[in-house]
Amino acid sequence: MQQKKLWLLACSVTLLAIACSSSKKNNPGGTIPSLKGVYKKDFTIGTALNSTQIEEKDPQAALLIPQQFNTATPENIMKAEIIHPQWDVYNFDMADKMVAYCAKNNMLVNAHTLIWHSQLPPFVRQIQSVDSFRTFFTNHIKTVAGRYDGKVYSWDVVNEALNEDGTLRKSVFSQKLGDDFVTEAFRLAQAAAPNTHLYYNDYNNEQPAKRAGCIALIKKIQAAGVRIDGVGIQGHWHLGKLPLKEIEESIEQYAALGIKVMITELDIEVLPRNFQGADVNQRMKADPTMDPYKNGLPDSIQQKLADDYRSLFKLFLKHKDKIARVTFWGVNDGQSWLNGWPVPGRTNYPLLFDRNFKPKPAFDAVIAIGKKQ
Ligand code: 9MR
Fold first, then answer.
1. Is 21 in the pocket of ligand 1 (CB under 6 A)?
2. Residue 2: which pLDDT band, with cuts at 50, 70 and 90?
3. 138 vs 289, which has greater pLDDT?
4. From the alpha carbon of 336, which atom of ligand 1 is closest?
5. Residue 373: its pLDDT value, please?
6. Which residues are bridge partners to 44 per DSSP?
7. Where are the domains positioned within the chain?
8. Which of 118, 172, 324, 346 could form a disulfide with 291 if both were Cys (CB 3.0 to 4.6 A apart)?
9. Atom of ligand 1 nearest to the CA of 79
């Protein structure tokens, strides 16, 4: 009898040990607090998603993402070159998968992006006549925004239409349709997607000159009687150089327009760079001094990154009544676009999770400041 009891006890202990180790292995986020939980009452917390993550091909990502985030932005798969590759060909495959993935995981989708001068399919630049261009523009917005109305929460309707001095960027859209193309894009989106929030999104639009241009653009849309619900400050910032004063002024000034403010593509660059922003056409020459942390991030830098993230979230919390969402541009350091831009092949560390999905000190700092309030 005694022997049987001992045997049963041994079996239970073994089973418990197996269960624990497999749950740890399969649940990298399971033992840590969640960003979405800690900031639940303040704003939603998002991440950009790539195809591998949407298709749940990476088991660690598949567990961590729904545990940490309650909203997501497609990093690339809803951009025109993928979703609308030819004049009359649309490819909704991955976008549909993204919508299904987010519905399954209770995540809101911020669709990105309807009108952007970058990542356009080649046929767009070959369109000659203004009439044909307008037809493309109208069909694109109607078809894509219409299909996802009621399925996505919001759209970045127009992305990066401004120059650094606040003037309108010269692009295929402004050249073919004139300066009113931004208002027109929102007008079409409003008709095609009446149940979807509509946003303007840009980088460096916390900087005074660009911000003034952005405010003028938003006022112009509003004056035309067209709906705009929010503005995205992308938030591609640099270690030790956070423009906190400009960010705060921007949050206040944008909110005063009666719209929501979002931080839409947050990451903090830790590697050398001689310019600010996220203009994908800008590049820098590769040389070894440009990639100093190939073998790991020194503790001192890791701490500085945590300090910067703490300051940012402190500011976001101060203005939580105006901020609807904070989205990180990627899940972990290994898949960040900053490993490949503006210098290819670098080892960068801009996010809250390391290459093994382990939370970094910056994650702990963001959680701690969120819990403290
Ligand atoms: O992260 C995206 C990267 O994978 C693409 O190669 C790049 C191409 O333009 O676009 C990146 O995302 C951009 C976003 O859509 C708009 N703001 C700037 C982002 C970083 O370039």
1. no
2. low
3. 138
4. 1
5. 81
6. 325
7. 43-273+288-372
8. 346
9. 15
Q: Is the CB of 340 under 6 A from ligand 1?
A: no
- CATH classification (class only), 43-273+288-372: alpha beta
State the Cα–Cα distance between residues 199 and 205, nearest whole angstrom: 14
Query: Does residue 249 carry a catalytic annotation?
Result: no
Whether the CB of 75 sits within 6 Å of ligand 1:
yes
- How many Å from the N-terminal Cα to the C-terminal Cα in the chain? 57
The percent helix, strand, coil of the chain (3-state, each to 5) is 45, 15, 40
260: helix, strand or coil: strand
> Can you tell me which atom of ligand 1 is nearest the CA of 340?
6
Question: Which one from 160, 184, 206, 269 is the annotated catalytic residue?
Answer: 160
The alpha carbon of 278 and the centre of ligand 1 are apart by a number of angstroms equal to 8
Q: Whose CA is nearest to atom 6 of ligand 1?
A: 337
Question: pLDDT above 70 covers what percent of the chain?
Answer: 92
Say whether the peptide bond before residue 44 is cis (omega within 30 degrees of 0). Answer: no
Q: What is the mean pLDDT of residues 267-296?
A: 88
Per-residue b or e along 95-125, where b marks 16 or more CB atoms closer than 10 Å to that residue's CB: bebbbebbeeeebbbbbbbbbbbeebbebbe
Q: What integer pLDDT is reported at residue 273 of this predicted model?
A: 86
Confirm whether 265 is a catalytic residue. Answer: yes
